[in-house]
Each structure stands twice: as structure tokens, then as C-alpha cells.
Amino acid sequence: MSHRFVHLSACLLLAAFTQLNAQSAASAAPQPLTAMPYSPSLDVTSLDRSVDPCQDFYRFSCGGWMKNNPIPADQARWSVYSKVANDNLQFLWGLLEADSKASNRTPTQQKVGDYFAACMDTAAIDKLGAAPIQPTLAAINALPDRKALIAYLGTLNRNTRGSFFFNSGATQDPGDSNSVIAEISAGGLGLPDRDYYLKTDAKSEETRKAYLAYIEKILTLAGEPAPQAQKDAASIMRIETDLAKASLTRVERRDPYKQYHKMTIAQLSADSPVINWPDYLRVQGVTNVATLNVAQPAFQKAVDHALTTESVEDLKAYLRFHAVTAAATSLSAPFEDTSFDFYSRHLRGTQQKPPRWKTCVRQVDRALGEALGQEFVARTFSADTKQKTVLMTDQIEQAMQTEIEQLDWMSPATKQEALRKLHTVRNKIGYPDKWRDYSKLEIKAGDYFGNTVRAADFETARDWAKVGKPVDRNEWDMTPPTVNAYYNPQMNDVNFPAGVLQPPLYDPKMDDAPNYGNTGSTIGHELTHGFDDEGRQFDAQGNLKDWWTKDDAKGFEDRINCLRDQFATYVVVDDIHINSKLTSGEDVADLGGTLIAYMAWTKATANANLQPAEGFTPEQRFFIGFAQWACENTREANSRLQAATDPHSPGFARINGIVTNLPEFATAFKCKAGQPMVKAKVCKVW
Ligand SMILES: [Zn+2]
């Protein structure tokens, strides 16, 4: 399974985990959409005018939205972004219904249509029960001894969905951004983070109990007698806890050097001798590997320890569980429900399973994202929107240049490198220039499980095939309908899928002010990621290389610490504060991004005769447009999970924590010293 060296630090929202588990609006029987619904990028009905904007700007901007948009029963969290994502899915549903029935389909329509229809056929899926996973379980059970079991890890990680002890795949070489190398990285856990295994508070104890019950239940469904499943659950928890202890924390993983250990196969074999690495790589289909990256060498030692000290029976139980839990959402209703009960209901507080159509649209997006994306783009992303958002991105880059040139604390030498990096950023707007080719992926009508296996296999093969080849800089890590955006420090590119450039985020019918406040700040946010605590460690070519003078690096850290101290004061839920060491990259991007969007807007409209509208000055409209991207409601359980895992601060802090640092905001709303939205001393990084 593939695993990026540098996680996409720059996603605007919580990425993959949410995508998988986010659920639908529960209002009366939704229908497929034939056009995207419209709401404005500044929505006065979302305001709460009873709140003074200088007291709590987030509440003022979003209070109405929060009241008007309760969390649907099948959602862990509901936000302006989730609503757009929901609209996109509902629109894609219409496309897929048509593609599943039409005659004379194109090969692309056949693939996406048949994948969707097979997923929708729950009667056929339920009839199969646990049968699709049985061959894998039988193969694990038949392993004669420890040696055979260890050798089989290569096959499992290559051919079976799931994370078996560790992950492996292709990655861009952090030290040489033009080349793709193999990588071994930490994995093998069933809970969302290492901390879930190690924290001793009552909530964490409760979650571990629920996880044990989940393991037991899903193994029982797969055919184990209950007493055996109970014993296995305890063994699996013990194995995973040992792996968790050896894993880096999320904060440690923000330091790219901590996950960069390039070594020869011989070195890896000497350090972690239990696995036959040349054989392992051969099974993955790569034979041209001389060196590779071992993201967490200490973790690999823990893997070796488990593989040599745990009994073969317990190791088999661990492998069976990971095969079943990874396949659960593609199996019959009892498996899917059990997975939902733990991962969505318990961990996130979601009350209800999503409707089937939504699950299936999401599965097609995961398996055939750029095939489905072509259809989405053709219908929703106009040439005019592309042109305008490309222009906005250029303007915001110019504002960033001005900002860098004006910094009083940075030396000319570092500035020069920063500008070189800025001018090298590639802007990818809407969709890839060249679409991915799925012609070799076979999708069969009526074979849902088989389709999911072939699609995963296709992706794994595609990933491993990159090793030893030059990096493809046209590639995207998000599909076009995705409502999100990212900066990739190794590519040094910003990526804005068509899905995030829709109203109310980008609104072609609205004046510039809220659009620059909303989409402009998002563009600025992603661009600033090139210069946050993680991104700044990569140079213009995307190489992990220190281009800062010592004093400038210290100056930068001092300025980030100002934000860290501020954000650490915000409470997420109960007595849990923001872990601002984890969120500081996102907080820096929010602050810098909003500032440069404001500069770009001011410059772009310098000669325009701006007028108040809907009772607000143009400056006020910019800031309300900015705040209204972040309106949200979140369940408590989900807030707890986000506090532990999400590098983004919660919505209220992403607005109030930013405007308090922008004197332009206080001026626009005539806020006075001493009011909560006015800080005595502002933080400024970029
Ligand atoms: Zn971000």
C-alpha cells in the first residue's frame, strides 16, 4: 500500500479519514441532482446579528448558519465544506445512475457505471456474507510456521487491502525531488493514532474497551468461535500497543528529517534482519532498488521484535483481523454495520449510516476518481471560473512577493531564496492536464468485492511502478470533485480541485470582496504552506534542504511561537486545548493566507469604486466572506478525535485566532482596544 513520506500537510480540511466516514444530509429522501445548487459566498442569513463582531467574529458570521444547519444524523460534523461535498456527491449520483443504465457507453462510463451499480446491489453483496474474505483468511491459517508467515507479509502488503505491521510503496525522494524511491513506513494500527493506545484517561480506556469488542465481533463475523475471538482481541491489542509505543507522534512527524533515513537494502537487512527485504521487494514487483527510505527505523525494530517474540497463532490472529477490518466496508451489511458502529458511531459520534447511494458514489470516487472527475469537470467547471481563479492565484502570489520583500526581520539572502521558491510554485487549478489511464483496470458488472480488490491492486501496481522513474509533476493527489485543496512541499505545487471552486466558496455571481475573503484566503493558505514550519524546510525544487540563515530560522521560530501560545489557549472540548504544536503549520497558513488575500484584493480593486452592499462596507464583506467558509457544527466525540489527530484548529479558532492578529479587521469593524477581537500585541509570521 502506498504511503507518502510527507503527509499532505497542506490540506485545508481533514482529509482521507473524513472522506471515508463523512455521511450525508438526512433530510427527506434526497434525489440525484442534475445541476449544482447555489448559495452565495456571503450569506446574510448565516449571520447572528445579536453578537458584536468585535466580541466574537466567528459567532457573528456563522451563528445563523450554526442554528440553521444542525448536524444530520449520519454526520460526525457539518460545515459549509461538508455541504458542498454533499452537493457534489448528489450531483455525481445523477451522473452515475445514468452511466449505470445507458446503452452505447464509453469505456469510462462502463467502468464508473458498473462499479456504482455493483456497489448499489446490496442484496447480492449480503448474499455472499463472509465468502469474499475467506480465501485470504484460509491462506493465513494455512501458513505452516513463523518463517512462512514472515515471508507472507510481502504478499499481504502487495495484494490485500489493510496495513499489516507496516506500509510500503513509492515515494518522492525528500533529498532528490526528481526521483521516486521505495519506502517502508510505520503502520499496522487499527485505532486512529498511537495516543489512543497509550493515554490513561477514562475516555481513552473506554475507547480501548470498545475497540476490543469491535475486534472480537468482526472476527466472529468472519467465522471464529467467540472464545477464540475474545482471546485473539487481547493478543491483537497487545501487538498493536507495542507498535504504537514505537511509532513517532504526530508532532514528531511534522519534522521531515525524523522520517528520512535513506539506506541501502543491505543496511536495512542488517538493522531489521527478520524480513528478507530483497524478497519482499521482489513480491512488490520492484527489482531495481538499491536504496530506499526507512521512515521510522525504531518502528521496524519493534516489528522485528513482534515477529520473533509473539506466538505464530497470535501473529496469525493479527493478520486475520487486519484483512477483515480493511475489507469490512466492501462486505455484507453485518460487517459494514460493525465497522460503522465503532469507527463512526463510537469514535466520531455519528448516529446513522449514510444512505447507500452516498457510500457508492464515494467508492467510485476512490477507485476511479479521475474517470468520474472528467464527467464532473465537464459539467461544473466553466472556462470562465478557471480563468478567474488562475488570475486570482497569480495576484495572491504577487502579494506574497510584496510581503516577503517588506519583511523587516529576514535577511536579504534568505529573502532571495524565499522569492526563488515562490516563483517556482506550480499552480494546478481545477483538474489534471492529462487524465489518468484506467484502461487496464477491469470492472465487472455485478462483482462489487472483486472490483474493489482489482481497483486497489491497480493503484498499488501503479504506485510501485513509479520507483526508479522520474517524478510526474502533473499528478494530483486529490480527485476533481473533492472539496479541499493542498500544497505539496516536495512538488512545490498548489492544487485546487474543481470541487472546491464552487459556490459558496467561489461564487461567480458575487462581488470580489467575499470571494477574495473566501477562495482568496484558501489560495493564500496553500501558498503559505510552502513557508510554514514544515514547508519552509524544502527548497524551490522540493528538496529537503536548509536554505535559511541561522538568525532567520530563529526569527521565524520566535514568530511561530507567538501563534502557538495564542492557539494553545483555545479549548476544543471538555478540558482539551488545541495542541498548537500539531496545528501551527495550519495556523501559520491561515494567518499568512488571509493577509496576502487581503493585500491582493486591495490591489486588484484599487481603481474600482467599491460600494457598501447588504449593509456592509467592502472591507467588512471581505472578512465576513472569509469567516463564512469555516461555519461548522461538530459532535463532541468527533471534536475529541480531531483534537488528537487533526493538524487543523477548529473553525472558531481558525477565524477568531486569525482576525485578532489583523489590524485591518479591527479597522473594518471599528473594534476598540480591550475588546476580545483586538489583541494588545499581534502575531505576524508572514
Ligand atoms: Zn492547510
Q: What is the fold's blueprint, element by element?
A:
Elements: H1 16-21, H2 57-68, E1 77-79, H3 80-101, H4 107-120, H5 122-128, H6 134-141, H7 146-159, E2 166-173, E3 176-186, H8 195-198, H9 202-221, H10 226-246, E4 262-264, H11 265-271, H12 277-284, E5 291-294, H13 297-309, H14 312-327, H15 333-348, H16 356-380, H17 383-406, H18 412-424, E6 426-430, H19 448-464, E7 486-488, E8 493-497, H20 512-529, H21 550-567, E9 571-573, E10 576-577, H22 580-604, H23 618-627, E11 632-634, H24 636-645, H25 651-659, H26 663-669
Parallel strand pairs: 3-5, 6-8
Antiparallel strand pairs: 1-11, 2-3, 4-5, 7-8, 9-10
Bound molecules: zinc ion.
Zinc ion is lined by residues 10-12, 525, 529, 586, 589.
Identify the notable features of this structure and list them briefly:
disordered N terminus; binds zinc ion; three-stranded mixed sheet; single chain; 686 residues; alpha+beta
> Strand fraction band?
5-15%
Measure the end-to-end span: 37 Å
Strand order of the largest sheet: 2-3-5-4
Number of helices: 26
Q: Ligands in the structure?
A: zinc ion
- Report mean pLDDT, rounded to a whole number: 94
Major sheet description: 4 strands, mixed
Query: What would you call the shape?
Result: globular
How does the helix and strand content classify structurally? alpha+beta
Number of strands: 11
